[in-house]
């Protein structure tokens, strides 16, 4: 049986760039690409295989859902991406039927696999995957706001002239329009954003609002120009894969099932979580002020109304 077999469902912009990123990182023993557009999956697998001489040994194939058998981790990027002007909510109804058809077959082939959902709207589709899979909650999770959190760190890094890896900051809630910057839990060398600005003598009215706005609109800005996003999301997925396969217990803002945390239940959304070989090991109760807590509840309500609208029961 392969040691670290990763199956990627959907070999589009995100799926193929993710395969490249995981291949380059040397994380997998096997990578399987599956797409309804078989020619596309075949071509992407061929292209990747031809780089074999430059990376650690890895078996890369394209195939069918049956070829995902005995996967360690399944990454779902299949579906319809947002067109310019469309929100993540707009595309839910196009993607639910795809998940209804592929998830049970994936679980049949690999009952013990972890499933990482990336397709949008990611929190709702992760919830659907959990329901369609019937797997334990820790084994089904979404990429959540790992990308958005990286965008926040990267923008703060540029503003403050600090390595993004030294900024502890989190985007929480929905991966989408209602996402929240958890400023109460943001620290740079133990300092709050205000303390760091004071130290630099930097005063900008509405600084936090501007940064939050830029993070929230980052995907739209890119999609409006090139039609899709692929590089940063692929790196975010690679980071999650690394935390899982190396059992790192890393803190990542993946999308997990809330069961009473922050007074919220029966919805998947992003919060800093401990991520390791068993998937989500714990959702962390980070400090939030009243306003952030209220916004988190509103984000949960938006996601719940989408789940209800999809009417999967
Ligand atoms: P894309 O259109 O390039 O790729 C999607 C692929 O899915 C296509 O190749 C299509 O043929 C395939 N597909 C459709 N139905 C399928 C099925 N039943 N089985 C297998 N494959 C199927 O889109 P993309 O740009 O790669 O985006 C993929 C998804 O990732 C979108 O939903 C997008 O919104 C999402 N995304 C998420 C994040 C995030 O942070 N969560 C970031 C970027 C993109």
Explain this structure.
With 313 residues, the chain is of the alpha/beta class. It has two domains: 5-142, 3-Layer(aba) Sandwich (Rossmann fold), CATH 3.40.50; 146-310, Lactate dehydrogenase/glycoside hydrolase, family 4, C-terminal (L-2-Hydroxyisocaproate Dehydrogenase, Chain A, domain 2, Alpha-Beta Complex), CATH 3.90.110.10. Helix content is 43%, strand content 18%. Strands 3-2-1-4-5-6 form a six-stranded parallel β-sheet. A three-stranded antiparallel β-sheet has the order 11-14-15. The longest helix is centred in the last third of the chain and has 21 residues, at 290-310. The radius of gyration is 19 Å and the shape is globular. The structure holds nicotinamide-adenine-dinucleotide (NAD). Nicotinamide-adenine-dinucleotide (NAD) is lined by residues 9-15, 34-37, 40, 77-79, 81-82, 98, 102, 118-120, 122, 143, 147, 175, 228-229, 233.
């Amino acid at each position: 049986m392969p040691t670290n077999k990763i199956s990627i469902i959907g070999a589009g912009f995100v799926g193929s760039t993710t395969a490249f990123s995981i291949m380059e990182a040397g994380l997998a023993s096997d990578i399987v690409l599956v797409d309804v557009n078989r020619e596309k999956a075949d071509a992407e697998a061929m292209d990747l295989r031809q780089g074999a001489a430059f990376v650690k040994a890895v078996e890369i194939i394209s195939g069918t859902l049956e070829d995902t058998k005995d996967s360690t981790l399944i990454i779902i990027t299949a579906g319809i991406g947002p067109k310019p002007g469309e929100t993540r909510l707009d595309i839910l109804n196009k993607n639910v039927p795809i998940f209804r058809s592929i998830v049970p077959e994936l679980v049949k082939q690999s009952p013990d696999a972890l499933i990482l959902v990336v397709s949008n709207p990611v929190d709702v589709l992760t919830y659907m995957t959990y329901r369609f899979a019937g797997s334990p909650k820790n084994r089904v999770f979404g990429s959540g706001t790992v990308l958005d959190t990286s965008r926040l760190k990267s923008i703060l890094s540029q503003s403050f002239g600090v390595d993004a890896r030294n900024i502890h900051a989190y985007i929480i809630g929905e991966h989408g329009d209602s996402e929240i910057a958890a400023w109460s839990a943001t620290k740079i060398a133990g300092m709050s954003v205000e303390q760091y600005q004071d130290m630099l003598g930097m005063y900008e009215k509405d600084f936090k609002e501007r940064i939050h706005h830029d993070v929230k609109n980052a995907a739209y800005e890119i999609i409006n120009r090139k039609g899709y996003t692929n590089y940063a999301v692929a790196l975010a997925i690679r980071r999650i894969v690394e935390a899982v396969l190396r059992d790192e217990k890393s803190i990542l803002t993946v999308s997990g099932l809330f069961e009473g945390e922050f007074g919220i239940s029966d919805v998947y959304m992003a919060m800093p979580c401990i991520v390791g070989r068993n998937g989500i090991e714990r959702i962390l109760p980070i400090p939030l002020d009243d306003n952030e807590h209220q916004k988190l509840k509103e984000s949960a309500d938006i996601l719940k109304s989408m789940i209800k609208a999809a009417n999967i029961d």
